[in-house]
Amino acid sequence: MGGGGTLISVYPEDLTFLFELDKPCYCNLKVVNNSEHHVAFKVKTTSPRKYFVRPNASIVQPWDSCTITITLQAQKEYPPDMQCKDKFLIQSTRVAASTDMDEIPPDTFNKEVDKVIEEMKLKVVYTLPSGSSDDSGITSSGSRSFRSGSDDLAMLKNASMEEIQTIQRLKDERDNTLQQNQQMQRELDVLRRRRSRKSDAGFSLTFAAFAGLIGVLVGLLMSLIFSSPQAAA
Questions:
Q1: CA distance 19 to 27
Q2: Cα–chain-centroid distance for residue 37?
Q3: Global pTM exceeds 0.70
C-alpha cells in the first residue's frame, strides 16, 4: 500500500525495518510524481541520529519516480515491546524545470502564502527476522532471546559482503572440522577391527593347538586299546 497527495505518492506508507541487533537495517521508499510538473521533496525525521536517508532531498521529473534508501543504524538493544515512536515527514512542492536537483534552493520548502507544500507523515515499524507473529510480549530485557531464532536467509539478506565472506569462512572451517572428526572416527574403527581380528586369530591358534593335542592323546589311547588284545594273544 502507499499513501499520497496531489503531487507525490509514496510506497509503502509505513517504513518497515527487519530489526536485528548490532546490524544496520534498511528500508526502501519509492516516491512517485503524480503530476506534469517537476516536484522537489525533502525527508525529515524525529530521530536524525538514528537514520541515514539517501537521498534526503531531490527532484522528481513529471510522472517519474525516485527510490530512497533509509538506513537504521545498528542498535544495541531491542526497543520496549518492539514499538517505535520515530516518525518521518516528507515535504513536496512544485519547482521550475531548470532547478538543479543537487543544489535545491534552501528556501524551497519554506511555507509562503503563494506556495503549496504538501506534507506526508510516515510511521516506523520494527519486525523480527524470525517471522514470529507474537511480537506483543517482547520487552527490551527479554527480547534478546529472539536473536537466536533469526532466520539465516533474512540475516544474509542485509549482510554486507565482508560479513557474508566471514560466514562462508566459518562454515568452511566447520566443514573441515567435521571431516577431520569423521576421518578420525574411521581410523579408530579400523584399529578396533584390526585388534578384534588379532584377538580372534590368537584364540583360533590356541584352540587349534589344544585340539591337536587332544587328537594326539586320543590317537595314542586308541592305539593302546587296539594293541592290547594282540599282545595278549
A1: 11
A2: 43
A3: no
